[in-house]
Amino acid sequence: MLFDTYEQKGLLFNMNFKEAEAGYAAYRGDLVLALGEVGDALGHRKPPTATIKNTIVLAEEDKIKLYVGSLDELALLPKVLAYYQADFAPDVRVILFVVNINKPLVIEAGGLSIAAIGMQEGLIWNELIDIAALDKGDFKGQSATEKIVTVYKALADYKPKGDKVSFEEALTRTVELKRAGRGPV
């Protein structure tokens, strides 16, 4: 399974779940974009220096069909492609929620059309099911993997909003925003 390979390479971080079912493999958690340095003589690594947070990834036959996550900075997009694009299916759907943009964009990069949506706070899963026009009732009795498959199928007709731009142009449209923090109340 693709995610077992990622786990062996140390690319899974803060994992919520990783499972396979009915020809699909699904993962939710963070994915590493820059491995931490080796921290001791046994080769154990320090925490990664960059991750894509709250990812929702669906693979079929070891090819990624759906790749969704949150980036703190749009400048990290090349790292996403460097680490994971080789495993993308030709018809992959990539949706990124990006903290430092305030208008949706469709970014042309690496031969892909990537939907980039500005988001400083909120839950990726909730935003994704809104985009897919689903509600909680659509997931009754489904396993975690089946829920992601349901979202993937609902996104079949999804047309991302925003200007179609190159990655270089998208970088000129970033803003100075930070992820909204939560603390004790």
Using only C-alpha atoms, the radius of gyration works out to 16 Å
Q: Percentage of helical residues?
A: 10-25%
Strand percentage lies at: 35-45%
- The N- and C-terminal alpha carbons lie at a distance of 42 Å
Low-confidence blocks of residues: none
Q: Please, what is the average pLDDT?
A: 94
Shape: globular
How many helices? The count is 5
Count of distinct strands: 8
Biggest beta sheet summary = 8 strands, mixed
- How are the strands of the biggest sheet laid out side by side? 1-2-3-4-5-7-6-8
What structural class should be given to the helix and strand makeup?
A: alpha/beta
Task: List SSEs in N-to-C order.
Answer: HEEEEHEEEHHEH
Oligomer: single chain
What's this entry about, in short?
With 185 residues, this protein is of the alpha/beta class. 21% of the residues lie in helices and 37% in strands. The chain has 5 helices and 8 strands, in the order αββββαβββααβα.
Explained architecture:
The protein is α/β, with parallel strands linked by helices and 185 residues long. 21% of the residues lie in helices and 37% in strands. It is built from five helices and eight strands; from the N terminus they run H-E-E-E-E-H-E-E-E-H-H-E-H. Strands 1-2-3-4-5-7-6-8 form an eight-stranded mixed beta sheet. It is globular and about 50 Å long. The N and C termini lie far apart (42 Å). The mean pLDDT is 94.
